[in-house]
Queue: 4 jobs
Job 1
Amino acid sequence: MKQFFIFVKKEFFHIWRDRRTLLILFGMPIVQVMIFGFALTNEVKNSKIGILDLSKDEATATLSQRISASQYFDLVENLKSSSDIDASFRKGDTKMVIVFPEHFRESLLHSNSVQIQLIADASDPNTATTLINYASAIINDYQDELMGETKLPYTITTQTRMLYNPQQKGAYNFVPGVMAMILMLVCTMMTSIAIVKEKETGTMEVLLVSPLKPIMVILAKAVPYLLLSIINIISILLLSVYVLDVPIAGSLALLMFTSILFIITSLSLGLLISSFTASQQTAMLISLMGLFMPTLLFSGFMFPIENMPLPLQVISNIVPAKWYYYIVKSVMIKGLGIEAIWHEVLILTGMTVFLLTVSIKKYNVRLA
Amino acid sequence: MTDEKVITAKALTKKFGDFIAVSSISFEVSKGEIFGFLGANGAGKTTAMRMLCGLSLPTSGEATVAGFDVYKESEKIKKNIGYMSQKFSLYEDLTVKENMRFYGGIYGLTDKRIKEKSQQVLADLHMEAEQNKLVKSLPLGWKQKLAFSVAIFHEPAIVFLDEPTGGVDPVTRREFWEMIYQAAQNGTTVFVTTHYMDEAEYCNRVSIMVDGRIEALDTPTNLKKQFDAASMDEVFLQLARKAVRQE
């Protein structure tokens, strides 16, 4: 046991003295959460719009005012004629133009029907759709007010509730994703590199000639990264709760327990990679190409798995991050308990046992 | 040197599939002997050494190291040997002291013993001033001498040195061999592979491997007589030219 602690201490020296890696280890989670939280958001805020008001009456003034007052839109231009519309888009800043026809109020009051044209820059289709929806919602609200108590003979109104994430914040989606990604990266890549490094420098041979058991070498290599990853989880959670306002809806203990399970899965993957690679570069490439990309693509964090062709859906099942992502979403965002995720926890446990058995077996084989 | 045999090998063989890396080699090494293990690249030296260190199981034959069987007692063998690989075997990002602390620790030495021994090694190497420097900041010759001291830090019965002086200047090599002699005098058996024929002359006995077999085994003086050669270099060349196997 004493030998084990001496070994772990040595590993901490390695990590501590490699300042650049240390910075990546602790800086990466913070930077990623910040980038995803503030830069890569798919919420649309302060989009620049123009309004072409051809009737300039009380109703259009109210509507214009309401639209420009909303946080989603930023009225930058009052257009004079329809020929200005094209020019406005061509300048590149304008994302949407609202056109009120002539005699807006009169038509509305007398013929009970009037049209508003919403022209959006669909070179980014998602943003365009979102903007149109926001604008339509504001216009519908106004219409409802006008109608007041008078009910139309047949109307179906839909009532929408956005469960778990009423404000539809992007952070609810990516915090679990970033957690899965960081843990995968730190545990798998760092452990495999740390072990392969000893092979590369020749110290692994010396360790194998020593009375230390191979399993002890492997465990001692993994322990520091387990601790570092737990610190990373805590920092991600603190950031998401206090900076991004994403609350932890479920049990923190369950969240930590499943996270540690996933860390161990990633560590065993790292061990497996290190057992069949001989250079640090190879280990890094395999970790990045073989794990980082699939984690990004198949965890469901960026692209919905349900929309993928069947073969890809099947492949996504072997990506551990997919299951962890599901667990974190369920526990952290939806506040569900173990009864909702035991299935996924079982799958992760199975994967871990399998990976650990294979990699320890590979290590116990003598170097021959 | 006494008559006590610390390494014995009888018809030791290692095959990788159809390839016979080591073909039925037999030899004995006495306590306190400096045993040179020579051969061209690919002759099977490293494979033979790995079997003796318990890193690789022989395909057939028998061998004991420090009185323990290589098949069944590799754990006990490991406790009684030191090893210095041809690659540099210290941690460059640890200090001199931390390296000694680590290697002493994994061999189960007590803290007190590690402290005493560290002081002694530092004094012998005249490196007291460098004890808290990172190993990577030391010149290669110092590193190599330190690596040897660390390999015999736990006072093993046998130390295996795999091309320990590669890339080292002649003066340091000389000093390195003085350390080897010192260790042998203290009763440590030294099993050393090398490509430098002048170093072969320093050994008590030398074996030369060609294509997985031991083609010659005797003292340097007798070998030179046997092959009618002026130096070990000539002896080696005469034998190595017979090699069929390429690297």
Job 2
Amino acid sequence: MTTENIHHVSASLGDHLPVLVVLVPFVAAPLLVFIGSRRLAWSIAFAASAISLVISFLLLMRVIGGEVISYHLGGWAPPLGIEYRVDAANAFVLLLVTAIAVVVLPFARESVRAEIPDRQNTLFYALFLLCLTGLLGVAVTGDAFNVFVFLEISSLATYVLIAQGSYRDKRALTASYDYLIMGTIGATFFVIGLGLLYMATGTLNMADIAERLVDQAGNRTVRAAFAFIVVGIGLKVAIYPLHLWLPNAYTFAPSAVTAFVAATSTKVAVYVLMRFMFSVFQPVFLFEVNTLEFIILPFALLAMFAASFIAVFQSDFKRMLAYSSIAQIGYMLLGIAFLTETGLTAAIVHLFNHGITKAALFMGVGIYALRLGGSFLDDIEGAGRRMPWTSAAVVIAGLSLIGVPGTAGFISKWVLVEAALEKGWWLIAILIVASSLLAVIYVWRVIEVLYLKAPKGDVIVKEAPLSMLLPLWVMALACVYFGLDTDLTISAARAAAEGLMAGTSGMR
Amino acid sequence: MMIELIPTAFLYIAAALILPLLPQTRARGALLLLVPLLAAWQVWMLPEGIYARTEFFGLNLELMRVDKLSRVFALIFCLAAFLGNLYAWHVNDRVQQVAALVYAGSAIGAVFAGDLMTLFFYWEGTAIASVFLIWARRTEGAYHTGMRYLIIQVGSGVILLAGAALYWRETGSMTFETMTLGSPATWLIFLSFGIKCAFPLLHNWLQDSYPAATVTGTVILSAFTTKLAVYALARGFAGTEILIYIGAIMTLFPIFFAEIENDLRRVLAYSLNNQLGFMVVGIGVGTEMALNGTVSHAFAHILYKALLFMSVGAVLYRTGTSKASELGGLYRTMPKTALFCLVGAASISAFPLFSGFVTKSLILDATASQHYPIIWGVLVFASAGVLSHSGIKIPFFTFFYHDSGLRPKEAPAHMLWAMGITAALCITIGIYPDPLYALLPYEVVFHPYTIGHVAGQLQLLFFALLAFGVLMRTGIHPPEIRAVNLDFDWIYRRALPRLIAWLAVVVTRLWHAHSAFWQRRMLGIYQRLYASHGPEGRMAQVWPTGSMVLWIAVLLGVTLVVSFLKF
């Protein structure tokens, strides 16, 4: 790398970027609690996220050409030491996660003030940063056990963040408890899978595992490890029958938490799934092909339809979006199940595009909850006239959710259809389009309620404060921008897909 | 020149963006009139060629493909937009004004689209913009009609997109040019065009929605959507034989419904459908002469159909009704509107010296010269039908016949101007068709005013007139069934309308039974879906932690089995 020729100090800082992206929020979290100032809490959290965003962007720019950065934690060389590995795939995920954090935090300020007691604010932001740390760590690390550790950090933080919703609705506690049970089972399965892998290979470094697995396709231990890891991560991804924690968690969590978690946590889990399926295990392993074809693919299709149907019948906008998320995860899994480069590109692009779309929508929901007292369709009747700016942004993001041309959602669905056709799976291409029509129905229901119903009561409702509108519009405009200019998303996703499809050689 | 660089559609869309910001009604009205003129000038000036190429997502888009076929359609669309906007001068509803601009712009953009992707964008643009002309009526009924209309139109776009994607995979090209039916891709594209063109059994949206729009909205709606489909068919499927038969059926069946329909705007919607049939036949025949006939007929048709919708609209505007049974004798107070309506009626009936004559005979001759005698006969019969329901029924029941007692004021001046200009154009084309012929895609070697043409057409017209006169005099025209003298000849003349009415009833019943069946089925599906996926349904249950864990166990088991199996 060219950095080695530059001045020593700057070179070493540049070389430390992979660990700094995690370290900054990780250090900021306890710092924020020690300082204990409510006023500073938000600022520190925001600053830490912003620094991480800048680092992520720098990392992505470095690896987008297909290079891989290998960072040895503490100078210990892998496979004994922990290795952080950055390639296009996880740099893209890092960028998504940090960008969402930076956009959601300004929004969170008002929203958290309204939904959570003041005395909890400092701790809230500390947890937020911990959750961010976990997600970033999962993405950046090249060590299988390290994935588990960071996954637990982010999950534990998420459980508590969701439980914060109990100040508005006590059911948040049950939702959080359920998620805790499910998440713990998932993590346990995951770690069991890792244990089995360790048995078979004697190493925990992902690249190392991959190399030693190459001729172990017939090993039953490896197969069992694969099943445990897929199901364990599948829980975090919310693969269709394992999605049951998600609707309640999203519905009852505080608005800002939902916006952040919905846009990032399942996406990171999808990334982990891809990493294990393509980089650690080999896509040529027959048992993997079978699992994808007979389990992931049908359940992805099922999710696209069943979850969309449920969304159609929901009377709570927030819950509707939660179910829509399950359906959208179906698209990503479908892209993975194609086992082609285009399919993976589609999954990664959708991961990004759906992230920004959902962040915008859940922020819109948060604004309605703040101004109108709830997000039920009854509550938001006629909000289109009373809160024109919020509603317009919600409509834009809604169109992106459907996949209307000119929005980000269209791009990812287009690539997905392209991938289906490339494999010659006409029927699936048709199903993708057909399930998008279901999205038209549920998004239309919201638009209809917003614009075509008369507002209830004579209470004067103010438009949302600028600090909430601005993040919302940033995301809504991003939905349009990435629908028109696909350079960044498509090329990054393609680079990521190439890296992943290269399998072991990509890890070297 | 700068203006070459801007696709014509963008002019409209830019104006639509500016328009809501203009505070004065007059300024908005002026903008609405100025834009079509500017656009028409641009279209007129642009030499043939491909402009505004751009790349989107790896696809080469051609936003402006100017050739003779697209130019003539763009010109008539600009003209129609101008006339429609002039007619709507009094409307002070920004929603309608913006919708009209975007709608016209999208239609023109679609006409100039050199590739299927661009076509799709504008195709959906016309759908979404035009529905606001229906919703602008702001009634419950209009809302539901608009919804149905939107679903069908957007559905057509989605089918087009699917077809385009398949076409791209098949041929590796997105260019929109002549295709041959055969692969799923071309069938899908054909179906999508067919929906917009109101093919038989795909036509219901037309009669459903056009009469439901606002007074001015209907005038604007009548010009673009279906003619855009005609253009697309002419571009993509010229010479496809199945179109001849589809078109022939299209000319026939709306006649029966138009005869028995009471709402005059709906009568016009049926007759619009019938006129489209002529154009579709022309496309199906596909010779140079036939295509010329289709294009010129579309040109003339947009004008006289707009004129008829304008005159009936003016009556609706003044009296609040467009029902034949409630109107009559309005010529006393609305003489100018009556006169313009007569011009429109004469044009649609293809009287010599009016526009319909010089264009329709092109199609008829082309059909005959390609040896489709039966089709030719059908078209002649349909022409007589047109005369009966549009040429006579509309003006007769509105402005003449028994006095309804209504004494409305004459239509407002701007409406009269719009109608007057349109009427003048209809007559000009009828008398001096050469400029229109010069615009057509192929060279025209055709003389409408030969003794054979004129005499044949006049015979047809006079006998139809005579029949109508006798029917009315004796009171056996469908809406007015009374006791009559049973003369043998009259039995024949009476039986025919009755038979037609009976046929229409049978067809309607069958249709209702068919749709009722599907409605029940859909309701059943909906209820079952609600039972399973609704908030109380099994699929939406999330609380029991145990069931979640059970699912985990099941999925792990299945995954293990699949992993362990040796395939």
Job 3
Amino acid sequence: MSDIVLKTENLGISFGGLKAVQELNLEIKKGQLYGLVGPNGAGKTTVFNMITGVYKPTTGKFWLDGEELTGKSQEIINRKGIARTFQNIRLFNNMSVIRNVLVGLHNQPEFKCGVVASVLRLPSYFKTEKAMRERAKEILRIVGLEDERNNLSCNLPYGKQRKLEIARALATNPKLLCLDEPAAGMNPHETEDLMKIVRCIRDEHDVTILLIEHDMKFVSGLCDEITVLNFGTVLSQGAPEVALNDPEVIKAYIGG
Amino acid sequence: MANLKNIKWKHYINYVVIAVFTVVFALLSFSGVLKSSDLYMLEKIAIAIMLAVSLSMVVGFLGELSLGHAGFMCLGAYLGGKTAVILEPILGEYPALLVSLIVGGLVAALFGVIIGLPALRLRGDYLAIVTLAFGEIVRSVFMNTSNESFGGSLGLNTPRFDKSVLFVIALVLVLLCLAVTQNLIRSKHGRAITSIRDNEIAAKATGINVTKYKLIVFAVSSFFAGIAGVLYSYSNFTVQSSKFSYNYSIEILVMVVLGGMGSINGSIIAATLITFLDVNLQTILTGNLAVLQDLFYALILILLVIYNNAPSLKGFREKYNIKNIIEKFKQHNPSKIKDDEAKWDRVPTKIEMDEVLSVDVHVSSNYTPDKSEKEEK
């Protein structure tokens, strides 16, 4: 039991009469790369929104490392260890790249420095600022943006903005990192680069990853296990080769 | 480490400028060169700077529109003024001033938190309406008080204070306000605050406690508005509630917008300029010309805004920009520019190159940490 990072039980949400997601049962093991796929409107992002606290699920519960987080606020869920990126990039546009990551480091216990200490510029302020910068640089190095750290984040090309978003999420030191279509809008070269980064994050930084993706090559090349959703219900679950070849899944994608 | 020196100088230049001005004016006033009207103007400027800097925290850094800043000032002016009236005979001049500054600031901060609470639920225009209403409520409450309590429509008379000392105190308080605001903004907490401005949803998803930071900003901002109010009551000898109408809130907002959102130094310059203009127009245009005061004031404001922001004047601005002129001067003496990081930060070539070469040229995961670490040192 203990190696299950995220567990959902009968998780579901309905907006009025529309059941966007129903009876979702996931069990994501520690260190897994888990994929969530499905046609447009299947409810993938809604699942993300539920487990990161944007929406309160109407039915069911979910646990992170055995701790129930159903209905908690986004801030608390993030601090407990679920970080996410967004389908449409949401960076802090008017800040430099490194500052974006520094905001991600804000809640880390090792960088604690109260408001009063900051205003009075006590030694602890300088110490934490320096340590935070070092750590932020390390994180930027993981995604390969270290050289861009002083540029404004809105001036980065699209692919790098996505990587920066991952870096910012990674800075919150999550147990589970949720990536919402990380490869959307990237060219094959960048996608490959991203796959390397995602694998590196999983292997070297001890983070479990849940990702939504439309690029089947990306999913089958990367994920250990996937869940296919359609119209809010689970069509198939299992290893990518098995799940993607399920006749139900093929029907949902191609029709017939 | 060499670059640290550079950055520090840049960060603290505004303190130095204000401190130098304070000392110079203090010396001038003690040697009797400055008239009391000059001192009054300096006090007004100090008050305006404090208001603009504190409002710029809410508008420029937190990204919420507040139109009730005069309301917080009004609270500070009345409550601080009243405290001064009560305490002066008991404690004497200076302790009474100190206590009333603290009382005025804290009461305003308390109301700042109370107003900050709806700010958590309201956005943009709606918050502007709530704060506007708050300012008007405060003003009309004080206008309708009895003569014995807060003076009602007659106004509250406050103790007289030595003008030549008061403006020094005011400028020192400006330095304090600046230090608190700047240190807060340039810390991890400031980053959290600006992240809320840039993208609240992302800030929440990054674990930023949005509630906490909105309340902190509202509290600190209204605290200094309250202190500015107390100074106003001391500087004016009397507090009239009509002063704190929403027009005044807008005037403060104009200072912040004109100075550039998110720029503390800009707010300081704009506040100084606008107050200077206001006071001088009042002294220049007297008698029959007094009707032209508002007209000229508005006209100059419009011209300033056009000069600052009109796209068609961009070339003109760049040509006569002080920064560019200095830059050109430096280019003539190449020995002056060394490869300090502060300079390197601003060189945009790298990113432009990336954009030109399209992104797939730049493959990132095979970086070399050793090399970049060396670069750091």
Job 4
Amino acid sequence: MATIFFTEPELVVGHGRRVLFVNPEDMQIFKEIELPPDLGLKTQAPSSTIEQGSGSCPAGKEQQLAAGGAKQPEATASGSAATKVEAPISVQNVAYSPDGQLLAVTTSGGQKALLLYRSWPENARLLSSRPLARAASALRFCSDSSSVLVTDKTGDCYQYDCVELEATPRLLLGHLSVVYDILWSEDQQHIITCDRDDKIRVTNYPATFDIHSYCLGHREFVSGLALLTDQHIASASGDKTLRVWNYIQGKELLLHELPAPAVRLLVRQLEPEKVFQAAVLFYGNVDALGLYRLERSPDESWSVTATQLVRAEAGSWSISNFTLTADRIYITGAENERLSLRVYDIATGQRTTSGVPEGWVKMVLDGLGASEEDAPPFVPEDLSVWFKKRFDNVSDYLERKKRRIEEQQQQKCG
Amino acid sequence: MVTTGEQAQDRDPEPDALSPTSAVTGLPQKRFYRQRAHSNPIADHSFDYPARPEDVDWRKLYPSIQPGQQVRFADIGCGYGGFLVTLGEMFPEKLSIGMEIRVKVSDYVVDRIAALRRKSEATGAGAYQNIACLRTNAMKYLPNYFAKGQLEKMFFLYPDPHFKRAKHKWRIINQALLSEYAYVLRKGGLVYTMTDVEDLHKWIVAHMEEHPLYERLTEAEAEADHITPKLYQSSEEGAKVVRNKGDHFLAIFRRL
């Protein structure tokens, strides 16, 4: 996994054990983070108990109730793992808090953790390192930067406090499949999650036991969400559609067919509350990236215009992620199992070097240690497993049943 | 399995043995639909499920459904449908749905309801038009079938206990799922749970009581519910337990 995002004026790229904060316009490196080889995870991973706010359910209660009585909770596993041979730690996801003061990093590999750094006024000082029960799938700060949400592969969503750094994480909600993306409304009233079972769920906050609505209509995994206004979101899915919803009402407002399944969505606001640029990364498509203009009319309806397809030579390398600045698209991927970074022009959709300082790409790759001899091979996640496997366990049964009935009728007639 | 060769010689003696439908009752026989009790509710299966509740063709399930009429009762994991049939008889005005994940078992219920409808039509009564069975994964697809607050009653009778701790996430009652049930249940709606596994009963009660959107009915309230005696009698699994002289554990909860 290579993570990349742009937040004026920094382009942030995470790979292996490093995160680099660079200026895309010149050769300046603002700062860099290198994960320690041992994250020193002492505290226990969160229990699987949803807290309902009353604090009435200590984790121990659940253990007592567990039929069969498992002897030790799995939480100790992360502690003992340090003594075993383990996969190297790598940066999985990085996010800035909205106030720009905090930086959250999730790691994968042998030590799965949520790391919190103070990014301002200090130059990335590690504040806390908290173990994750499982590898994270998405990461999102709340608008007032007081806590951060982490979702995982089993569909659980935990809230980690960013003020009380030692506070036990709270399990806020659960899906039955991977949660691919998570949003938190500006007013912090709703948490919006999307999963592999085609669903977008809108959950009330802080009363997260109460589901406000579902936005239903997608027919495959929902890979990406983006907040448009205080009522509207955009979603992209493996069903080859881009949609706009009123998430408060759970109502679909726009459906746009895409040339291929969408695996990532990024939205930039061009005019407040009105015009947006949506970028969609495709699965198995020569034109690896599509750019769309979403526009809201005064009567609440939305329109979409396809503005650009980016022929990112998909197939010749393995694309993993991308981000946008005002004029350029930065795409990460693997070439010969090495991290690669390519730059494209938004206006033309063509690969470009204009505006990219000479030696800039090399500087970034070197800074991430991607060109080192002993760098571990980089293989982007296989996204084919996101699609549901349709294995048919019905027609065989029905066929046998039909035959049995026919045989019986023959017998009657005979 | 009986081969065709044998069949040719074997003209008569036991026509019933081969027929999935009993010659005596005219109803399908369970032994042709046996299936192991466990199913992984988290794995992919080939379900045809609607994207949204608006997309469900309810007329296919309830041929005489009235415009505006909606399913109000759901028997989750309805097994062979014994209780679903009782529910249909007790509440002729309400549409009840049975949801069952196992292929053969749900097919049995579908065939059983079709047979019951045929028999009833023959006598002119026209009953059992208000019950139907869906093969689906209720843990995943309830919001695909039901709108917010649509259901009045939900039943979880003799659910798979999934004893192993690692499989507790497969339990039909868990904290995350209780929020989904609360979403499809209307305020004041009821959740009926019944099991013969005491540990599971404790688990259910602990999770439901902890969830802010449910409160348990008092014993007196549970006793006063007309459905309560039927819960002890009419599920097949229940009948088996009675023969084994096992204990039943009933708990009813109100959606707040």
